[in-house]
Design goal:
104 residues, mainly alpha, Arc Repressor Mutant, subunit A, three-stranded antiparallel β-sheet, 12% strand, Tscrpt_reg_PadR_N
Length: 104
């Protein structure tokens, strides 16, 4: 997988949110955390799922809830390992030095 700026930002946000949210991340929060707009984010998430790095499931509908159900993404063991590796590779590349995200 080609390492792009948006992929690094999404990967870092997923890894951070995975630690904070019991392994569940969702699109809107991920977009806010990563700074990647939805038109770029969702294709990245699709690629990560196709690689087997993420699984997804829909939140159960709650009676009276005003917002639509969330689509949650969870890291697979393969994804956790590969995103960690991707983050370390990006940390070593000069082009990612100024993105302002601490690498795992």
């Amino acid at each position: 997988m080609k390492i792009t700026h948006s992929l690094v930002m999404v990967a870092m946000a997923i890894l951070e949110m995975d630690r904070e949210n019991d392994g569940q991340v969702w699109g809107y929060a991920l977009s806010k955390r990563s700074g990647v707009r939805s038109g770029v984010l969702y294709p990245q998430l699709d690629r990560l799922m196709n690689e087997g790095w993420l699984d997804d499931h829909w939140e159960e509908r709650v009676e009276g809830q005003k917002r639509p159900p969330r689509r949650y993404y969870t890291l697979t063991e393969q994804g956790r390992s590969n995103l960690g590796t991707l983050a370390r590779k990006a940390a070593a590349e000069q082009r990612f030095k100024g993105i302002g995200v601490a690498f795992a």
